[in-house]
Amino acid sequence: MIKPTTTEVLHAVLDDAAGGATLIECAAALAHALRRSLELVHVENLVALHAAALPRTRALAHAGANWEAFAPEDVERGWRAQAARLRALAGDIAPRHAVTWSLRSVRGRWPRTAMELTEDVDLLFVGALPGVMDSNG
Fold this sequence. Notes:
By secondary structure, the chain is of the alpha/beta class.
């Protein structure tokens, strides 16, 4: 495994595990090429948490299902599942690129939180599904 020549880190920011494999693959390849370690930053979007806290929020589990109550605890459970999926993806992908990696979760609004991270890092790789970057955040 290639160790970074300095303490430099490539920070890869994403808010959804659905596009995680592609982001992690690209970020790990870039981190390897730049001899940096990789830190994945999972943004837990507060908009979803606030929406789930509304008194009449309901959700469909799948097409044809009945509407069911949806609460902040459901969003929290979803975030834990996304983080676990990202951890598993990174555990499979990063070693193929011979980079060390870590994962942390932060709460905020997408994409604002990703842009706020630019104040603290020198290299930021932002990944989003199509249409997400132009969403209200």
